[in-house]
Structures are given as structure tokens and as C-alpha cells.
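Recap for those who missed Tuesday's class. We walked through two folding examples back to back. For each one, the amino acid string is listed first and its predicted C-alpha cells come directly after. Nothing is annotated here on purpose, so try labeling regions yourself before you check the end of the notes.
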Amino acid sequence: MSALLDAVRAGRTAEVVGLLDGMTAAERRSVFPELKALRKELRADRWSSQATRAHPALHAAGAACQTGAAAVASWLAATDMRWSQASPGLLLHLLRDRDPEWLADVVHRLAQRPSSTNASYELMAGLVRLADCPVPTTETYVQGWVWHMGSTWKEADTLVERLRAEPHLRALVPALFETGEVGGSLWWLGTEGPNSWPGALSQLADEGVLERKTLIDVCLARLLRGGQTNGLRVCLRLLKTLSLTRTEERERTADWLALSSDALSVVAAYAQSVLSALALDGELLPRQLAQMSEAVLFRTEKKLVRAQLVLLGKVLARDPAAADVLLPAAAQAFGHPDAEVQERALKLVERHAGKVTAAQAREELALVATQLIPALRSRAAETFGTAAPAPEPLAYEEMLPPAPEPTRLPHAPESVTELAEEIGAVLASDGDVAAFERALDGLVRQAHGNREALVEALNPVARRHWWDGEGEPGGPSRAETRFSRHQTLVSPSDALALLLATVRERVLTATLQASLQRSTVSTGCPHGPLEAAFDARFWEISFRLRTDPLPFLLSTPTWSTGLLDPDELVNRLDTYRRLGARPGECDFALALLRVGREDRSAAGAAAGRARGLGTAEGTRLAQWLTSEGPPLLTDRQQTSDIRILLECGEVEELQADFPREFRHLGRRLDAPRDGWCYRHWDINLRRHWLALLPERRELVAARLLRDLSSVAVDDERGVAAILPPLAESGGEAGEAVHLCLAYGLGARHPEDRLAAVDALLVLAARGQLDADRLGADLGQLVRRGAVKPTRLAESARTAAATGAEATVWRVLRHALPDLLADLTTGGTPATGSTAAARGLGELLGVAAECVERSGARGELPHLAGVSDRRGASRLVAEARRLRDALNREAAA
């Protein structure tokens, strides 16, 4: 037994196998407790060189020395040995003499485990072969099979040949389309060429190796279930490669109808094309076509909607008797949010209205026509012989969504166990400033008064993270290596990790002191001052945790935005005075930056109390509370790469009497030349930067402006998530905030545009939105090509749909004139293109809808020049619609 354990510890796998081969079953069972103890020992630092060396041998020995199938499967898929396992061939050698039923039990248990456990496909396939049992069809096994098929190329080998040689092919292929995601981890299914999966499966179906009907059915079933785009595209490609016959298509009419209604756009388009062919050949009943139309015409994809209207027109031209059924279905498009779609639908109904014979159908058409935009209702009334609609009343009251209210931070947990749980949650999430600050304050408090219990409670949390390891034998800890080499804290969790490593004695005091003294500011990056202030606070806290623990933090905010109530800060300074505690320089500086001064009466009252403390900090706080921060002076810069950025002047009050790491917050900001900074990749950091200056959001916005421009100009994703917190923050909402918002409204990705719309609505609800400024900014950005009008139209339409039509119109009223002027003078490169003109047409459509709903009236410069053009393009049509809406007489 000792020889086996020595060989396992040393990682001599071949010797371990030889020893196990010479042992009886009883001898193997007797040694297992010691193997289990060794695993527990290595688990404490599973990334050490000793553990990495021993794990493959331990993995093999533990599997060979157990008798229960469940226990062996659990051992083989153990998380701590996931990346250092024994080879499949070696394991199969050790298990080959077991009972086939036992082997089948093991492989099915392995196959039931999540694919993240890294269970070896070669091992599972070998066990299936030894047990001669049915193949598992779980996601783990099927994904492993596909990986294996895609990675075992041989010279002159093809995918078809490898699949043809698979004995379990008829069981595995249907299961492939039933797994969680075909196109994620199985991405190569969508490759093109002679060895593509769609091509190979189609060829095998033609040869009869696979049943064609089954393949079609599982593919359609997967499309009906939905999922990620990549997987659905794979299924769609396979369907196209199979080239379904008309009989096969007709037999699955119900599936095509369901897909045209709810499926991914590209899938719905294919289903629509199949149903269109059936309808034009007379193999789709009018009732079925009407059912399809009612679903498709509610979709947002205008290409699908237009194609459906064209199809209805062709069928009605060939079968006039179907008008009673099909025209009411076509009229469902009268309620479409796009005015062009409404007009197309109305033209279709006008062309075929004379074919309607049923009175009920005509009544239904007249009723649905009330959903048309005002400019089209009169035409519909004439078509259906109904009374013209009366002018709309002037009464309109905008209903903006209520602005979110900041929440008060609860007190830090008093129990070290509860605190440890919260710290673990914060490390896993990173994003919530309030939860982060609450956990941070609790950590400082417990480290001051209950350090030993805190360290014990943090053990389970810390051991899950890389920085808690000991490092190489005789060398520094991993945390010491990380924090001694790189001073920058790259994420909120990295900052919290520094404090936990300090509490758990993983970082040397000399390292903390050196980092605190040598802090620098990245001058080439607009984020540098924000980073320096954020980092300096944590290096100071860490050093004080080791040398002179703070009783609590002065800078913990009162509110979720980062704002600190002045009375609360006075109370904390008073407690410090009574305890004789020395405030941290950076902690007090941040408390000053966070303390509320906008409520002048509350700030003045707190200043009087602060002077009465008789301390230097109290006097400094009183001076700060009675002063007013000057507005940020900005200078607009138009860059060569179509952006509009800002340069900011000095902010003197942020430089006097502040630590050197904080003074750069008030230094001049030049328009940054570069964008993304590798040191500031974590988007969650931006929320914490904003909480540094909760009443000076203009300053933060100016330093984030280059980042925000990237969502529109460079098509980056996720940066605009900072816009709602920016809108909810305090202080002036000036040029920087509105430019950030303008870029967000023109973002490439829908989630960023939605974040920008949320921010716009928050500012409007708080009375802080300068619609004139925002509109002018958007007009300039569209002219320069930094913001695409189609994206802006989507954002404006989304905002208007919440009930903010008047607000959106005020913005567009100042964005449109310059764009319209460009068109009347021949256009600039940004607005003169066909795509830009089409996008401007959509923008005019949103403006017209806002005017129609809000009852706004007046003139829009340069609108007449566009609306008087000849033709019926979307741009001209929407310009006329907006002109008519602005000039329409309203009912008294």
C-alpha cells in the first residue's frame, strides 16, 4: 500500500498501473481510504505543482479501487481533477475486467453529468464498447461525440466516411438535435464545403443510412423549440440541403405556419417561402393563408411583412373569391407601427375591396381602419364608404415613466458569517455599488473588532479564488505575486480580493506600503484619474488593515448612487474623535467628494455641526459644505474620425487640500485620441467611478465620452450600460452627459440603445433633459456619420412607445432641420447616400407619429423643400406626413 501511495504522490502513473494490476479486489478496496485522504490533502491547493503532478495517477487509482458504480462515476468526473486526469486508455485498461452491467451503469452515470465536468468521450465510448450496452443520448455524450468526429481527421478521410462507420449513428443523430444547443459548443455543424455536417447528413439520408423522415422531423422540431441563433441556422441549412419535396413540405404545413409566426427571422423567412409556394400552387387553403398572415403581419421585421402583403396580392389576383377571408387578414397590418407598412396594406385593400361580398368582412375592415395613422384614415373612409374621421382633440398629457429613486444602504452585517456570504456574492457579481460598499464597510468593521472570527468565516470564500493559493514551494503567495507586480486594480472584485488577501496574510506589509507610496496616474488615458482615486482608497485601507485598522469607513455612501448625507458624515467624524481614531487620508477625501452639497440648507446646518467638532477634518468638511462647486467648462472638439468629443478645463476645488491621487480628477482633460484601454476593460468599474463623484456626473461623463462614442462609431457592445446610472446620479447634466446620451441613442446593439432610452426617460422625468441640446447634438452626429439615422429612429420609436411622444418630438425638432437642409442642398456624404436617406425617412416617420399623438403644431425648417419633391419614396412620403400633421387643424 505504501508503495502505491508513494507512486501516486510522485505521479508515476505507469508504476501505479503495474501495482494495481497485481492487487486483488480486496486489496484495492483497502487502500482506497488513504487515496481519499490524499485527494482531500491535494484539494486544499489543487493548482500547485504537487497536485498537478499527482492527479493523473490519483485519478486512475481511485477509479480502480472502488466498487460502486455511482462512486466511480463521481470520482472520474471530479471537479478538482478535471484538468489533470488519467488517459482514457489507461482507465479502460483498469476497468476492463468489471461486469458489463456495472460498466453500463458507470457510463450512463457519466453521461448524465453536465458537459462542464469534462467527462471524456473516449472513456465513455470505450465503456459502451466494453459493456455492449445502448449508447447514452445525453447532451454530454452527444457533444463529446461531435467533438470527437470533428477532431479525428485522417489523411484522405471525410466526415461522411467517419459517420458511416459509427455503429450508433441512428441513435446519435436524432439526439444531436435534441441537445441543449446545437450551434454553441457544436459550432462546426454550420461549416460549408464537402465535409460539412449538413452535407454529410443529407448524403447519408440519400443513401438510406439515416432515415430521411426522422432527420426532417427532428430538424423541424428543433426549429420549433427555438434556441440560440447559431444552432437554428444549422438546422435551417440542413433542411435546405435535404431539398424537401413538395409532398414533404405539404405534410408539414402546420409546422411551417408555426415557424412563420414565432421563429427567428431567418427561419420564419424560409417557412414563409415554403408556404408562399404552396399558396401560389393552390395547396394552401385561404383559411390557412389568413392564419399565417395574421401572425406574420404582427412581426416587427418589415421585410417579412412586405413579402406577406405581396403574397396576399398575388393570391387575391388569382382567386378573387378568397377576398372575404384574406382582406380582413391583410388589414391587420393597419396597426403596424411603421407607416409605410400601413400604407402598403391600405393600397392592397383598396385594390381588392370591390371583391368583398360579405357584409361582416366589410364591417371588420372599416373597424380595423381606425388603427391607421390620421393621414391614411380619410382614404380608408372613402374606400369603405364610412364617415371621415373628426379632427383629434388638442388635449394631450405626456405620461413619463417615474424616475427611479435611490435606495438607502442598509447597515453592514453584524455577523461574520453573514458578511462572508455577502462578500462571496459580491465577488461573483461585481456590478452593484451598494452591495459592494456595504460588504466593504462590514469587512473593515469586523477586521477592527473581530479579526480572528472574520478570517475563519472567510476561509470557504477565499479558497475558491486563485489569489488564496500558496504559490510555488518556498516562493511568495499568488496574491503577493499579483499585487507586488501590478498596482492597478482591474475590477471591483480585484479590489476586494486585495483586502481579503491582506486580512488572510497573503500580502506582505512592505508590498502594501510600497504600492501606497508609489501610486501614479495614467496620463495617456482619460480614465486615469478615476482609476487612481479608486485604487488609492483600497491600497490605503489594506495598509491600515495591517498597521492601524480603521474602526469603520468615513466614505461609505448613504445612498445607492454613492451620495453621502452630510449629517451622517459629521456623526462619523464625531465618533472618530471620541475613539481617538486617525482618519485615512484617501478615505476622508472620498467622503468629501461623496457628501451632498446640492441641498444647501442641509449642507449649511451640517457645516455648523462640523465646525463644533474642533478637529481638522471637521473644519475641512465645514469649508467644503459651504462652498459651491463651479460648473465644468467644456470645449467641443470635432475629431478626424467623425466623433465629437470634449475638452475640459481645470477644476480648482478638486486640487487644493486633496491627496495627490485625487488631484488629477480636477486636472484639464484633452480630447482623447485613443479608445479602449487594456487596463480598464471591466465595464463594472464605470459604476464605481461614477459613485466617486455622485454630484459631479459631468466630470465623469466627460472622461467616459470616448468610451460611449464607441457604441455608435465602432459598434462595441455593453458600454452604454452606464447611461441609466449616469442619469440617476446628481449634479449638472450638461454637454458631456447629453453627448454621452446622444451616442447611446445611436448605438449598434439593441441593449445599448435600450439603456440610452432608459437614461433619456430618467432625465426627462427628473426635469433634467435639455431636449434642444440633445437634438442639436444628434443632428451634428448624424451629419458627420457618427450616428446612423436608422438606429436613432429605433431609439426614438422605443422612447415614444412609453408615452414620451412630446419629449421625443422636442428632441427630433432640433435634430431634423440640419439633416433636411443637407438634402435640399444636395446632401453631404453622411446624409446623401441612399441608406442614410432611407434612415432619415424612418426618422421622419417617428417624428410624424409623435406629432400626431401629441398634437404638436408649427413649422419645421426645410421640411417643405423635401415634402414638395416629386416621387413616392419613403423619405418624401414621411416628410409629407409630418408636414400635414404639423399643419392639421385640431378639434376645439
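Example two. Treat it independently of the first, because the proteins are unrelated.
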Amino acid sequence: MKIAIPSRQGLVDEHFGHCEAFTILTLDETRKIVKEELLTPPPGCGCKSNIVPTLADMGVKVLLAGNMGQGAVNKLEEAGIAVIRGASGSVGAVAAQWIAGTLQTTNTICTAHHGHDGHGGCGNH
């Protein structure tokens, strides 16, 4: 199983669309992390909706995020990726919380960027 965490310098990025990279963690059948890699999103869309097919193709099943807009949540869920929002802290600590079953989603939707064109013409809106 693979989980993805929008990250910046080893921390969960507070907004999915602004992250430097996605930390991709591969877990074995006992939920032990056996591989960690960074995926740098392509330039363009500030909402990162264009990364969803890549995450799905990599086998990502869960995304642990700080926050994101409803459009990103919809695209991820349509691709079969469960979304947990409200994560904060180091990537390792957040992954450990999820593995232990103690990370709960806040279901809070980011609305801070409505009304400004931060989507760089990605065509996803």
C-alpha cells in the first residue's frame, strides 16, 4: 500500500496546492514503512489537480494532507484515493499517527483561494 503526504522540508504542507513535493511512503502488509520517495509535481496548476493521475498510477490509496479545496478532494476521491485532512507536523509523525489509527480527518475545506486565479490554466476548474 502507498500513502502520499504533501510536504515541504520534511513537514506536512498546510495546503495541498502549495507543496514542494509529495512524500510517497510504501507500506508492507504489516503497515511498516519499507520505502520513502519524493515526487516533485510538474509546474503549472497551483491546485495540484494535475498530479492526481500520477499518484493513482503509482498506487497511492491514501493522501494525508493539511488542507485543500473541495475540487482537489473530489479529484482524489474519483481516482480512488482516500483523503485525510487536518494533518500537521513532521511527515514521519503524521505517517505514524495514520498507521496507529489515531489520525482523524477534520473534513475542513480550504476556501481561502476562491476568487483568485491561482490555478495557472490547468483546465481542472
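Answers for example two:
The radius of gyration is 14 Å.
The chain is about 20% helix and 25% strand.
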